[in-house]
Design a protein that fits this description.
CATH class of the largest domain in chain A: Mainly Alpha
Largest interface: A-B, 51 and 32 residues
Structural class of chain B: mainly alpha
Radius of gyration of chain A: 17 Å
Strand content of chain A: under 5%
Mean pLDDT of chain B: 69
Number of domains of chain A: 2
Distance between the termini of chain A: 46 Å
Oligomer: heterodimer
CATH superfamily of the largest domain in chain A: Winged helix-like DNA-binding domain superfamily/Winged helix DNA-binding domain
Shape of chain B: rod-shaped
Number of helices of chain A: 9
């Protein structure tokens, strides 16, 4: 499928993007905190990916798409910083606006779903640089080097941001320790 | 490397241990501290639980339908190409047509004006000759003389014009050599002037040519406009 998309098959590219659009949108949403901006960033990423498809040199397509999405999200952040009228919504106010997940949410997984929801809210309480580093590394699986490249930061800076972000998340999630019981206990 | 039990490792060292970095795992002081310090172990456990949960965060459905692929610009470019091709084809026709119209209009009006002025310059002479006639004659008679019998002076411009139309020099066949010399010395524009007569002749012969240019130019403009109208793409 990827090879056909690289060869210029628009149908193959469309199916690839259909498959990864939720991952791209999710990353953009977690970086930007705004559904409309996230949709814009994802769509920009699709256009950039289409234009750059001929230059794709293998590797995990998902990682390649996520890097493009992260860059598109960064572009939107930079534009917003030049026009600082847009602010990220407050986590408590924004909580009801969290988009539905694509994963099925059966009743026996209600606790897990609740955990994910609180984690998303806690992520939005992090400072932007820490949130970006933690999301790219811990949520989307980039290594430190990839995060450093994407955010144009030094490796040591990235490590520090990730660690401080995790420690801050730990504090924010302390009141929801019971949600980790079915996963990994925070208080064992 | 020893570490007192009441001195906790720095966050960076704890993070390195949590990331299973080799130098942190080989740090005996750090590992001994973690073995003895419940607080630091708890922090490590929390971090591990957090990372596990973060890695499992699900993807999110877009808040609105996204366009997955840029639209194909081909139909728009076909129309644009057709319009461009049409303009490239008709623009030179328009330009040539406009040029011909301008040349034809200027030339034809010049030729016509030259001919008309030559005819009208002689007319006042006829009138002035008529004015020299005796003043005691009744006005009606003077007018009659000017119009019908007022003498050869009044008829000369018409005769001159007729001769010029025939391409002659404007002299009557029986003109004497003295008359010719006198005519050559007279100012231009006078009746019977060979230069004026030649000019009149050129004007008259050039007029149909300029008129033809004008008509051809108009025709070209009409053709180019019709082509644009007939071939341009239309909505729907």
């Amino acid at each position: 499928m990827v090879a056909r998309a690289v060869a210029g098959d628009r149908g193959a590219f469309t199916r690839l993007i259909e498959h990864y659009q939720s991952a791209c949108y999710g990353l953009a949403y977690r970086l930007l905190g705004d559904p409309d901006q996230a949709a814009d960033a994802a769509q920009d990423a699709f256009v950039h990916a289409y234009d750059a498809m001929a230059k794709y040199r293998g590797g995990l397509f998902r990682s390649w798409m996520l890097r493009i999405t992260a860059n598109a999200s960064y572009d939107i952040v930079r534009r917003a910083q030049r026009r600082p009228t847009t602010t990220l919504p407050d986590a408590e106010e924004g909580e009801p606006d969290l988009p539905d997940t694509t994963v099925a949410d059966p009743a026996d997984e209600a606790g897990r779903s609740e955990l994910y929801r609180h984690l998303d809210v806690a992520l939005r309480h992090l400072p932007e640089d820490q949130r970006t580093a933690v999301v790219l590394c811990d949520v989307y699986g980039m290594d430190y080097g990839e995060v450093a490249t994407t955010t144009a930061s030094a490796l040591g800076t990235v490590k520090s941001r990730i660690h401080r972000g995790r420690m801050r998340l730990r504090e924010l999630m302390a009141e929801h320790r019971e949600l980790f019981v079915t996963e990994v206990r925070l208080d064992r | 490397m020893t570490m007192p039990n009441d001195s906790h490792p720095r966050d960076e060292r704890l993070a390195a241990y949590a990331d299973r970095e080799a130098d942190a795992l080989r740090d005996r002081a750090l590992t001994e501290h973690l073995a003895a310090c419940a607080r630091c172990r708890l922090a490590l456990d929390d971090l591990a639980a957090l990372r596990s949960a973060l890695a499992e965060l699900p993807d999110l459905a877009p808040s609105r339908p996204l366009r997955l692929i840029p639209p194909v610009p081909a139909p728009a470019s076909r129309d644009a190409g057709r319009v461009g091709w049409l303009r490239r084809l008709t623009a030179p026709v328009f330009a040539v047509g406009t040029g011909l119209v301008l040349v034809g209009a200027v030339g034809a009006s010049g030729a016509f004006t030259g001919f008309y002025q030559a005819a009208s310059v002689d007319a006042p002479e006829a009138n002035s000759s008529a004015d020299l006639r005796p003043t005691d004659a009744p006005p009606a008679a003077q007018a009659s003389d000017v119009e019908y019998t007022g003498g050869s002076a009044a008829q000369e411009p018409l005769a001159s014009a007729r001769v010029a139309t025939d391409g002659s020099t404007g002299r009557s066949p029986d003109a004497s050599p003295d008359d010719l010399i006198g005519a050559a010395e007279s100012p231009p524009g006078k009746s019977g002037d060979p230069v004026t007569a030649a000019h009149d002749s050129e004007s008259v012969t050039a007029f149909p040519g300029f008129l033809a240019l004008l008509l051809v130019g108009i025709g070209l403009i009409v053709v180019a406009a019709a082509m644009r109208f007939a071939l341009q793409p239309r909505a729907g």
